[in-house]
Amino acid sequence: MKVNIAQPQIGQEEIKAVTEVLKSGMLAQGPKVAEFEEKFAQFIGVRYAIATTSGTTALHVALLSAGIGPGDEVITAPLTFIATANAILYTGARPVFVDIDEVTFNIDSEKIKKSITKKTRAIMPVHLYGQSANMTKIISVAKKHKLTVIEDACQAHGARWKEKKVGSFGVGAFSFYPTKNMTTGEGGMITTDSKEIYEKACLIRAHGSKVKYYHDILGYNFRLTDIGAAIGIEQLKKLPRFNKARQKNAAFLSKKLAKIAGLIVPHVDKNAEHVFHQYTIRITPEFGLPRDEVLKKLTEADIGTAIFYPLPINEQKFYRQMGYRSKTPIAEKLAKEVLSLPVHPGLKQKDLEYIVRVMRNCAESQK
């Protein structure tokens, strides 16, 4: 039995939609992109959405559109994919890493205030693994210090904090990479209620041009294709169903794994709707078998697993060469313990039971 860590859910609807685009001859950014943007904005609950080539470019353009640039500082989390911090560097600004909460894996909102300086221009919380950061506290701090909030929602399509979807609190950035809760193959989306940011983002993603061959600012070629948008429109229709399946799978795994000593299942904040882009457990010393040995045994059993992420960004070689040093002990600790198990909508009941059985065998082998 083989159980993959991720499995894009592509059906006949997506294939038909792509075929229609190919037959139309309109392959680059066109009417399907506009339709996808409108529908995604409605889904998130904002006025505007701007499609881009990836989650990374969505973050980059969102930052630039908010006026972030050289000499600025942006507060963010260290335990995330490196694109979060790299996008800040692309603008000439500098990421400032604030440690994470040990229970939720998200940025510790209580520690943000201590890292604010005269150079701080924005806070970029990451809704890691599909669970929202504490947006009540983050928005409060941002308003008090007049900071922009740019949400890295690349792993959190449809996730909520209280009554609002992530991506609607500040400027949101989403990824549609194949492993995400919904996909366009490669692609990204910016969400905002600001007309100013919307207009700036539209210019930046298209060579700084509003009228063809007339360029107002320095821009990039970050445009999504109509092929990708056609896939995205169909995927968006299915996203609520996908998320419910992920939540159901996560609930089953947590119920079965929670009693294993030394294994900590994901915590769901009472104020959040977790959409489980990843189902991430912690393998603590009490488990008896080191995390990397558990990964090895799962791999031998043909169960796909992954470590998201084995090294905090401020510990990466490139960042250490820039002068960053570890000041985030919780992130460093959790990076040694986290392990993600399959949770995607393509899992069958027998797959889930097999995962549980192998995890129990790992635990019992140490008794």
Description:
- The chain is globular and about 70 Å long.
- The chain folds into two domains: 12-235, Type I PLP-dependent aspartate aminotransferase-like (Major domain) (Aspartate Aminotransferase, domain 2, 3-Layer(aba) Sandwich), CATH 3.40.640; 240-364, Alpha-Beta Complex (Aspartate Aminotransferase, domain 1), CATH 3.90.1150.10.
- Strand 6 and strand 7 form a beta hairpin.
- 37% of the residues lie in helices and 15% in strands.
- It contains eleven helices and 15 strands.
- The chain starts with 11 loop residues before the first helix and ends with a helix.
- By secondary structure, the protein is an alpha/beta fold.
- The protein has a seven-stranded mixed beta sheet, with helices on both faces. A three-stranded antiparallel beta sheet has the order 7-6-13, with no helix packed on it.
- The protein has helices at residues 12-24, 31-44, 55-65, 83-90, 135-145, 195-204, 226-257, 291-300, 317-321, 329-335, 349-364, and strands at 48-52, 73-76, 94-97, 120-124, 148-152, 160-161, 164-165, 171-175, 188-192, 209-211, 214-215, 263-264, 272-273, 279-283, 338-341.
Give the N-to-C terminal Cα separation.
26 Å
| Strand segment tally | 15
Mean pLDDT metric: 97
The CATH architecture of the largest domain can be named as 3-Layer(aba) Sandwich
Give the name of the CATH superfamily of the largest domain.
Answer: Type I PLP-dependent aspartate aminotransferase-like (Major domain)
In short:
The chain is α/β, with parallel strands linked by helices and 367 residues long.
